[in-house]
Design goal:
Protein name: Helicase-associated domain-containing protein
Number of domains: 3
Mean pLDDT: 74
Oligomer: single chain
Organism: Odontella aurita
Pfam families: HA
Strand content: under 5%
Helix content: 55-70%
Radius of gyration: 28 Å
Length: 356
């Protein structure tokens, strides 16, 4: 199962090399698209840029071995270019945090993290993070772990998207942790250890990035995150069972109601827990859906009034996803209105027409 995640990481890494090492897309570099000559030139350009970057990493390793940290001065006399490169990496880090294109890929972040690279340094105090070997790396990991704790506290889960707009670096860091665990399991050198894994497990960290690999609590938390996004978009948790944008979410919501009912019945097994109930209640989850109404006209009118109160107009789409029941009701009313105007028998009469 690790193969899928590895392939995904590799694909992003390959794509990022085009993004960060060239200003033009790969097909515009040398030769006609698809020609072997053009491909060879592309590969050569990427290889040169990557080799140059890795060479700087090796130089930074030597600097750290000598001074115990990666706090290279901007105008480092022994190697001016290294000082500039370190400054550029911090700049790339700032761009990454803002969600802009950046040269810092997960692999490059890992290499810098392994050295305890200081992404932020207080102005006028370049020795502030001077440390023993490995200490800065621990500080950085702890810093990002705290960011993840804050995310968990705010969202109730640790499913940080790869391109998390609020903090792009956190999404990249989370992805790196999955990668590091896979390396640890393969017996390769890794920044992951059992202590860090336990700390992440305490936040219900999802180690399997592909949905097909998710099970149990990991999958539940992923769906919960999707439900929160639905709530933010439509201001309710009434996901239709056949929600076209996410069929799995519609089925999941129905399942939560069913599991809740089972929990209320003595002797019945249920996957629902108090923790899950609290998380769902925190976003206003609707545990029971009303049975078919005996007065759909009154219910529809009430839904329409609520819609107008919120949006200050009555232009409800027939396919309104925020409340599919209202959308269907409005569609029927429009059809009945046309029938009524044409003198055809309809459920709409003059009294109802006046109310509308």
């Amino acid at each position: 199962k690790d193969v899928g995640a590895g392939v995904a990481a590799a694909e992003q890494w390959q794509k990022s090399k085009f993004d960060v090492d060239q200003e033009k897309p790969p097909e515009s570099i040398g030769g006609d698209e698809g020609t072997s000559q053009g491909q060879a030139e592309d590969t050569a350009l990427i290889g040169v840029a990557e080799a140059a970057w890795l060479e700087k990493i090796e130089t930074l390793k030597k600097y750290k071995k000598k001074y115990g940290d990666c706090l290279v001065p901007n105008k480092y006399k022994e190697d001016v270019q290294l000082g500039r490169w370190v400054k550029n990496m911090r700049w790339e880090w700032t761009k990454l945090k803002k969600g802009a294109n950046s040269r810092l890929t997960p692999e490059r972040l890992r290499l810098l993290d392994d050295l305890g690279f200081a992404y932020t340094v207080k102005k006028g105090n370049r020795q502030a993070r001077k440390s023993t070997d490995g200490e800065a790396a621990v500080d950085f990991w702890t810093e990002k772990y705290q960011d993840l704790k804050n995310f968990y506290a705010a969202n109730g889960h640790s499913c940080v998207p790869n391109r998390y707009k609020i903090d792009m670096s956190l999404g990249a860091w989370v992805k790196t942790q999955r990668w590091e665990l896979k390396k640890l399991k393969r017996g390769e050198k890794s920044s992951m250890n059992e202590e860090r894994k336990k700390l992440l497990d305490d936040l219900a960290f999802i180690w399997a990035p592909l949905e097909g690999e998710l099970t149990g609590q990991d999958l539940w938390l992923k769906r919960y995150g999707e439900l929160k996004e639905y709530k933010e978009k439509f201001d309710n948790c009434l996901v239709p069972r056949k929600y076209p944008d996410n069929l799995s979410l519609g089925n999941w919501v129905t399942t939560q109601r069913h599991q809740y009912k089972l929990m209320q019945q003595p002797g019945k097994k249920s996957e629902m827990t108090e923790e899950r109930i609290n998380l769902l209640n925190s976003i206003g989850f609707t545990w029971t859906v009303r049975e078919r109404s005996t007065n759909p006209w009154e219910d529809g009118l009430k839904n329409l009034e609520d819609f107008k109160s919120k949006f200050h107009h009555l232009k409800v789409s027939n396919n309104y996803r925020g409340n599919p029941v209202l959308g269907r009701w409005v569609k029927k009313i429009r059809i009945d209105h046309d029938k009524f105007k044409a003198g055809v028998q309809s459920s709409l009469d003059s009294d109802k027409g006046t109310i509308l």
